[in-house]
Design a protein that fits this description.
Elements lengths: L3 E5 L4 H12 L3 E6 L18 E5 L15 E4 L6 H6 L1 H22 L2 E7 L26 H21 L3 E6 L2 E2 L10 H10 L4 E4 L5 E3 L1 E2 H13 L7 E3 L4 E3 H12 L5 E4 L14 H7 L7 H20 L1
Parallel strand pairs: 1-2, 1-4, 2-3, 4-5, 5-6, 6-11, 7-10, 8-13
Antiparallel strand pairs: 9-12
Helix pairs in contact: 1-6, 3-4, 5-7, 5-9, 7-9
The structure holds nicotinamide-adenine-dinucleotide (NAD) and uridine-5'-diphosphate.
Uridine-5'-diphosphate (UDP) binds next to α5 and β8.
C-alpha cells in the first residue's frame, strides 16, 4: 500500500537515496532539509516527480503542517562527518536532540511510525569487537566528538521514551560507515577525501599511522536494511547496519588506488582526538531479524563512487 513518508535530511547523501527507493516503491515522499551539509542537487532529478516534494526547514524548530499526516517518518537530518559536525558543535547537539524530539512529537500527533538514523558512534572507541547492539559503548562525554555521539545517544533515549510512555512505534538503526555516490565531495570523510584526492592526482591524507579500522557499507545495501526494519511489524531495534568488511585506513588507501587505477601516494596527518581505533558491526541481529545481507564488495562500491566523483570534477573543470 502506498504510504505518505517524511524524510528529514532528505537532500543529504543517504537521505536522497532513501527518497529514490521510497518513490520506486510507489510511496509519496516529502523531504525536509536546511541544506547544512546536503544540497538541492542531490534531489534535482526528483523535483519534477509527481509524488515528491522538498521543503526547506531546520529540524531544531517544530515541524510545519506539511500538508497533512504522515504514515512513516524517517529522521536522518544531522551533519554526519566529523569536520562538519564539529564545525558548530552546539548546532549539532541541538539538531540531534531537538530534531529527534520534534520528529517524535510529529509521529505521535500523526500516529506515524518513526525511524531513527542512529550511529555506530554510540559505541564510541569500543572495547568490545565486533560491536553487538548489547554493548553499551565507551564515549568520551567531554571530547570534540561528543556533540554528535551524545546527541545520537540522547536521540535513541528519546525514541525509547516516546515508545514506552507515549506508545509511538519506533525503529532504530545504528549505521556503520556508509559511502556511495552523492556524498558531498567536501564532506571530509575518509572515502570522499581519498577518492577526490586520488582522482585529482593529489596525495591521500592518512590520519595517524593508518592502522585504525572501519567497515564500509555501500549506500544501496544500507537502504535495503532501512526498508527491512521499517516494514517489520514489531521490531524496534536498535539494529546494526553495515558490513563486516573491516579494513585499516592504509588498506583503504590501496583499494582506492585500485579503484581509480593509480598507485596512491600518502601524506601523513595527525590522528584527530578520540578517533576510534577499530569498528566493525556484529550483524547477527540484522541477519536473524531482518534477513539483512550486504552485497556490494568494497572494490565494486568504490568504482561506482569514483565514477560519481569523476563526473563532479569534470563538471567543475568544464
Ligand atoms: P549528510 O550530511 O549528507 O546528510 C545529513 C542531511 O541533514 C543533510 O542534507 C543536511 O543538510 C541535513 N541537516 C543537517 N542539520 C539539519 C537541520 N538542523 N535541519 C534540517 N536538516 C538538517 O550525511 P549522511 O551521511 O547522509 O547521514 C544521514 C544520517 O545518517 C545522519 O543522521 C547521520 O548521523 C546518519 N549516519 C550516517 C552514517 C554514514 O556513514 N553515512 C553513519 C552513521 C550515521
Ligand atoms: N581519515 C583519514 N584521512 C582522511 C579522513 C579520515 O585517514 O582524509 C580516517 C579518520 O581518522 C578515521 C577514519 O579515516 O580513522 C574514518 O574517518 P571518517 O571521518 O570517514 O569517519 P568516522 O571517524 O566517523 O568513522
Amino acid at each position: 500500500m502506498p504510504l505518505r513518508c517524511l524524510v528529514t535530511g532528505g537532500a543529504g547523501f543517504v537521505g536522497s537515496h532513501l527518497c529514490d527507493r521510497l518513490l520506486a516503491e510507489d510511496h509519496e515522499v516529502l523531504a525536509l532539509d536546511n541544506f547544512y551539509t546536503g544540497s538541492r542537487r542531490n534531489v534535482a532529478h526528483l523535483v519534477e516527480h509527481p509524488r515528491f516534494s522538498l521543503v526547506e526547514h531546520d529540524v531544531r524548530q517544530p515541524f510545519p503542517a506539511l500538508g497533512g499526516r504522515f504514515d512513516w517518518i524517517f529522521h536522518l537530518a544531522c551533519p554526519a562527518s566529523p569536520p562538519h559536525y564539529q564545525r558548530d558543535p552546539v548546532f549539532t547537539s541541538m539538531t540531534a536532540v531537538l530534531g529527534t524530539l520534534h520528529g517524535l512529537e510529529r509521529a505521535e500527533a500523526d500516529g506515524a511510525r518513526f525511524f531513527q538514523a542512529s550511529t555506530s558512534e554510540v559505541y564510541g572507541d569500543p572495547e568490545v569487537h565486533p560491536q553487538p547492539e548489547s554493548y553499551k559503548g565507551s564515549v568520551n562525554t567531554l571530547g570534540p566528538r561528543a556533540c554528535y555521539d551524545e546527541g545520537k545517544r540522547m536521540g535513541e533515549s528519546l525514541c525509547m521514551d516516546f515508545h514506552r510512555s507515549r506508545g509511538v512505534e519506533v525503529r532504530i538503526v545504528r549505521i556503520f560507515n556508509t559511502y556511495g555516490p552523492r556524498m558531498n565531495p567536501e564532506d571530509g570523510r575518509v572515502v570522499s577525501n581519498f577518492l577526490m584526492q586520488a582522482l585529482r592526482g593529489e596525495a591521500l591524507t592518512l590520519y595517524g599511522d593508518g592502522s585504525q579500522t572501519r567497515s564500509f557499507c555501500f549506500v544501496d545495501d544500507l537502504i535495503d536494511g532501512f526498508l527491512r526494519l521499517m516494514s517489520h511489524p514489531t521490531e524496534v531495534g536498535p539494529v546494526n547496519l553495515g558490513t563486516e568488511f573491516e579494513f585499516t585506513m592504509r588498506e583503504l588507501a590501496l583499494e582506492v588506488g585500485r579503484a581509480v587505477g593509480k598507485a596512491p601516494v600518502l601524506v601523513h596527518r595527525p590522528l584527530p582526538a578520540d578517533d576510534p581505533t577499530q569498528r566493525r558491526p556484529d550483524l547477527s541481529r540484522a541477519r536473524a531479524v531482518l534477513g539483512y545481507e550486504p552485497r556490494t564488495p568494497l572494490a565494486e562500491g568504490l568504482v561506482r563512487t569514483a565514477a560519481y566523483f569523476a563526473a563532479r570534477i569534470e563538471e567543475e573543470t568544464r
